[in-house]
Amino acid sequence: MVHPGGIIGRMPSAALCVDHPTVSEAHALVSLRGRELYLLALRGRLEVDGRPVPHVRITPGLQVRLAPGIEIAVRDLCLPDSLLAIEGVGSRPVPLTHSVYTLCQGPPIELQPGFRPDGDGWIWMADGIRAQLRGESPRPLRQGDRLHLPTGTLVVRELQLCDGGTSPTRDSGRRGPALRVVSRHETLHIHREDGVFFAIGGIPARIVSELSEYGVPVRWTMVADRIWPDVAEESTLRANWDRHVKRLRRKLRAAGLRDDLVRADGRGNVELFLMPGDELLDQG
Questions:
Q1: For a Cys staple, 165 with which of 32, 33, 41, 93, CB 3.0–4.6 Å?
Q2: What's 256's DSSP letter?
Q3: How far apart are the C-alpha atoms of 248 and 254, rounded to whole Å?
Q4: Which option is the CATH number for 7-73: 2.60.200.20, 3.40.50.300, 2.40.50.140, 3.50.50.60?
């Protein structure tokens, strides 16, 4: 069984390990969007019915080709009514939609998707959700449990499925006219409610497109890996990322639009930031 946030790939720690040289280490990701699950291509290629696709909705009976002679099939699909989230990291609860997280005590406390051996604790999907703080034994996590770190306490709370991983983050305020954002993978069209229209192409548009597919805050590396799959050095990947995010923000400012459409949280995560009245249409 692969939970939301689980990786399918060649690496031994993948939620579904496919031990074959033609499969990428992190080939694809299972992503929760509202009450639906999607399979997103990461460093690998996905084919459905002989056609390459960047993502596909997961349904019973779905067959996806990862590489020549390597296919996976969906036998059953089970969605819970709610999911667990961690309160005490940032300004809002963080839904636990990845297969593994690392806790760093900071300050501030950070909850980072993926495993880091130098972390101060870890949360992972197994038979349920389990956690381990450094120097302590692993234990199951349930609603109301607390994780005590020297710099603060994290609380486990339950979110209804419609509250977690459902849509890009929306702020409670409103600054400027509402936006209609049309993502077409390689191009981005932004319509303002006062009639202003602006189009962006190339890598800046890809960044918005990839974030719109995830629908939740994710590590910047997860997005960058999909845009530059052949770049192995993280320093080079980071330089590419920073350069093109700055290009995107310059273009938005030049068009008289707010430049925080792609927003970082200061802990290595990025999100597509929509405000009340904004609309996202993914045509990628």
A1: 32
A2: T
A3: 10
A4: 2.60.200.20
Cα distances (Å, whole numbers) of residue 269 to 16, 129, 138, 263 = 24, 22, 26, 9
Please report, for residues 170, 180, 260, the alpha-carbon distance to residue 276 in angstroms, rounded to integers and kept in the order given. Answer: 6, 11, 14
- In tens, the pLDDT along 185-243 reads 788 888 877 777 888 889 998 998 888 877 667 788 888 988 998 888 888 888 899 89
Whole-model pTM: value is 0.45
The distance from CA 158 to its chain's CA centroid, rounded to whole angstroms, is: 20
pLDDT digits (tens, 9 = 90+) for 257-269: 878 888 886 667 7
Task: Write down the domain spans for the chain.
Answer: 7-73, 82-161, 179-282
Interior angle at CA 179, CA 251 and CA 209, nearest 5:
65
Using CA atoms, how far apart are residues 226 and 222, in angstroms rounded to an integer? 7
For the record, the structure tokens of 128 come out as: 């349920």
Structure tokens given for 266: 């200061």
Burial of 146 (0-12, 13-18, 19+ CB in 10 A): exposed
